[in-house]
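Practice set, problem 2.
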Amino acid sequence: MTLAQQLRQEGIIHAQQNAVLEALEIRFSQVPVGLREAVESTQNESRLHNLLKAAIQAISIEDFTRSL
């Protein structure tokens, strides 16, 4: 993988992490630090995509946490 591809991939991952966290903040106002760290440590695009869906559909922050 070239440096440009690696930087692009990192940018995509970072954007997906931010999307999950923003969805959680919109839905539940605050995101606990441990949960924020768990999302930020997730590096798999597919996993982050599924977490975004879970953030949108979760009934509560606890419900979302079970998705991790």
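Problem 2, part (b): a different protein.
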Amino acid sequence: MTSNGVPGRDAAPNRSAGSTGSDLAPEHIARQLKTRWLGRDYRFYSSLDSTNSKLSALATQGFAEGAVLLADEQHRGRGRLGRTWIAATGESLTFSILLKPTCAPAEMAPLALAVAVGVAVGIGEVVDLPLVLKWPNDLLCDGKKLAGILIETSGDGKNLRHLIVGVGINVNQSAFPEELGGQASSLRLATGKNQSRPEILLAVLRGLEKWIDLWRGLGSAPIIDAWLKYAPWVGEEIEVKTSTGIECGVAVGLNPTGALILEDGLGHRREIHSGDVTLIGSV
């Protein structure tokens, strides 16, 4: 794909790089895919260490924009802030997307918000749940994490060669390790029944394509407006762990670049460009 979402010469057909017995294998997904450019090169692996790492390596081989790589099982997936994202066979959706935007790395924050909205919108098409986005791109339900997003860039600091968008969605887990401290949930736990992973995947890919296209065409304004609709905690007090310490204040909103705006008790406002948010109270 080219950066505007039009198939290019390097577009490749759907293919599988592992077992094709899964309902997530290309022969099942390809005939149901409704996107124009995202996932038209769709690659399935029965097991990988990390979908982001694998796709990053393949990106240097001329892969088209919009390529999607999914692993049914992931051993060493990466989350934000150096955390690990483990996905057992048959329970979740862990996949990565190759994008080649024509902007500087400093302009990427609204894209992360667009990806978060796309995931939330897609899941919301399949299940009726009170989904909440925690800045910048964690998806929660009843205060517990359902999905996470990790965006990794490749470039020289001024120009992007490509970026990898990693998405992990907890779908059919019935329990989580004790070390997560009750902080994670799944669609199965939230709805009380198993969910179709192919249906969730197809809906999320549609949502991602729509909101990435909107970001490209209209910029950050509609993205931020949509993102804030999933953030009922805006207006409440929060804590943000940054590289320099803990910032506390009332979340006022987001600026046009996607930075979080905090207001202290004296009415002073400051912008937070990266950090880990703790929501105080329920959302």
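Answer key, part (b): The longest helix spans residues 197-218. Confidence is low (pLDDT under 50) at residues 1-16, 77-82.
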